[in-house]
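User: Here's a chain of 267 residues. Predict its fold as tokens.
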Amino acid sequence: MNILKHILPISQQLSKCLATVNTQQVFATLQRHAAPSVRAISTTAPRHDLMQFFDDKKNWGEQEVKHGRGWTKDDLRIKSNSDLHQLWFVLLKERNMLLTMEHECKEKMELFPSPERLDKVKESMENLEEVVRERNRAYYELETGETGERPGKVVPNELGIRFYYRAFEHVIPKYANRKWNERHKFTFGGSAVWKFLRLYRERLYNEKRKLRNRERNEVVHLLRRFPNIDRETLAQRFPTVDVEKLYKLDKIRMNQSVKSGSSSSST
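Assistant: Prediction complete.
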């Protein structure tokens, strides 16, 4: 109560003084008495407001928008950390703008021009993150001898499916953390789980087998239709298919001989 008796008269006098002085004088006084290294008030003038979420108006209604390629890792490795930091926010604004334009075009049932821009921005952001991780790993390995990244390992879940688990820091030890032990089960068992794993692996095997068969049939079709096709390029396009072995098949060679015979008779 004694403190209030001292503060109340001072506050009343201060209110009377402020009532006689306008806002501009108070602001000028604050600026004069403020520390030189601290700014009293910082404001920025609005220029584009919410229009930064939209593309340039000259691109509205266009079928195609001219754009460049994405940022590669080699391009980003020669940039400084401050440049990468600025570029990240530029890409982030570009991604937000493209997502807004894509949503707006869907709402109006219009064609979104050059949708590959989103893929290039996503690829650029992924490359930027990878370059930053490379620098962090190099720094920590030089200073501490470790990568500095969060440790992790491949563990199975309750259904026996293996996944990569990243470790987290906890205040409570693992053996005493009841909630963590209830949520994270890295063991599995039981006849139902083993049956599920058998059917799941069978499904994965069938998908891989069907994919190999589709690629093999496609290579056979290309060899029949284009006998002089570059086999090295074909092998790079379909790495799971033995192109040389298919090229030696009788049905492909017979098809080539028939085509060569028909071409000679026509001449």
